[in-house]
Specification:
The complex is a heterodimer of chains A (about 270) and B (about 300). By secondary structure, chain A is of the alpha/beta class. Chain A has twelve helices and nine strands. The model of chain A has no long low-confidence stretch (mean pLDDT about 95). In chain B, the strands form two sheets. In chain B, strands 3-5-6-7-8-9-10 form a seven-stranded mixed β-sheet, sandwiched between helices. Chain B has a two-stranded antiparallel sheet with strand order 1-2. Chain B is built from eleven helices and ten strands. Chain B has two domains: about 60 residues; about 230 residues, 2-enoyl-CoA Hydratase, Chain A, domain 1 (Alpha-Beta Complex). Chain B is about 40% helix and about 15% strand. The chains are: A alpha/beta (about 270), B alpha/beta (about 300). The complex binds zinc ion.
Chain lengths: ~270, ~300
Amino acid sequence: MTGNHSAWEKVQLARHAQRPTAKLLIHTLAPDFLELKGDRCFANDDAIVGGIGTIDKITMTIIAEEKGTTLEEKIRNHFGMPHPEGYRKVMRLVRQAEKFSRPILFLIDTPGAYPGFEAESRGQAEAIASLLRLLFTIKTPIIAVVLSEGGSGGALAIGIADYILMLENATYSILSPEGFAAILYKDASLANKVADDMKLTADDLFAYGIIDEIIPEAAGGWHIDNYTPLSALQTKITEKARSLLQLDPKTLLENRQARYRRYGIYVEDKT
Amino acid sequence: MANFLDKHREKVVMFNQQYRGKRKLKTTKIDVPENLFTRCPFCQDLILTEAVEANDYVCPYCGKYFQISGRKRLAMLVDPGSFIEYDKKLKTSNPLNFPGYEEKIHKVSLETGENEAFISGKATIDRMNVMIGVLDSHFLMGSMGSVVGEKVTRLIEASITERLPLVIVCASGGARMQEGIFSLMQMAKTAAALARHNDARLFYLSVITHPTTGGVSASFAMLGDIIVAEKDALIGFAGKRVIAQTIKEDLPDHFQTADFLLEKGMLDIVIERKELKQTIVKLLQFHRQEEDHDR
Ligand SMILES: [Zn+2]
């Protein structure tokens, strides 16, 4: 269903300079969105935008990785690579969502966690790990959308969900193809060659059961027609939120646990 | 230990003197019985292998820690003969059909004698029952793919079922690249199991050794109720080289060392290798369950 683009072409489409970012989706689907900032501990991380908004009469906590569109924004948001305070803000906002029984919407778009001195000093490994564990205890529905780039632990940190949608040309992977090629072949310029082997397209991830549904984009990509995926997203997000809200919290958490419990492919000798 | 060294000191000194003359030559093979001596990778001195073993794989000359295999680490911590290994029959397949992956696993298995990078099971430590798992940095840098993630998860589940404390000794380069998204998902899977372990109010002790980075540090390594790290261990999420390349920042020498993390508030205790076991024993004693107190 996803056209004839190669994996590497999709990597380029997912990073396209004109590709919309989470804020277009938020402002279109939840016009009353109110941003809530800060981790109450160290700082506010602009790479992750969090707040409350109403999508088709459902009040949701919306949390999005936002790369920014202008150069000024991109620098302020450090190109969508979260710092530890970003994950810690998410921890605060998901606990708040649980307290007020609001469903949660995660919008994923990041090259990955921020590879820097400050991020390491403030414990990004601990922040990601603690957020992952916390999300398995939050008794309110979580829906995630892989919008564009789903890079490594930075993507997974807001990728724990009960239902996961992915845009047609988005990617989701252990590392960027450049980083992957640098680690395995000591040559980042082989990125275009390894992209296919990495199995990072929406089709691959759907086949593996990592995501639940693919949202089509206009021919040529999301930047050609901004509104094509948005109405489908609105329908899917609200449908799913409504049906997940019917589940009792215990079942919701058991299902979430079971989903991630089965990930992994290995063999077990019977002898 | 001191006695042992004294006894052999003369021999070692003689050997070092002989060998020093030749060191500039490109000799890697030396004319002594195999494995009798071990060369310290840090100070290059030759040490009797027995002396290295008796000193917990710490160089008696320069004090630096040797990187040890999972089996050796396990033997240092558990009571002799008490270890019952679990999930030995889990083997790696090739989830993404990644080119060359099966061959690589096969080769490393032959070299190390292990199926995968995580050894787990039930044992006693100072006669206290524990579930214990050890990552093996000798097996593809202790990287976490489907088998490691599954074995870690099963160990956590066994700890919940048997209501026993859990000890995991970490040493890992992070994700198993060749398993792509499945490797990433092991972070979620192990964190999910630890959420259940936490709900069950059981003790989880994370022991971090050199090196622990990437996906392992950002999942179960950093989720211990108590986190103890071995002195000089490299601990971090992003690789030092990647940080230097992308950010073009000068990094301080002790960046991402155990002491650096301790200073930043990310660890409970940094400890010498020779004190590790007694510290684990003490922590296990502090967390004994009711049943144990009756004995
Ligand atoms: Zn030495």
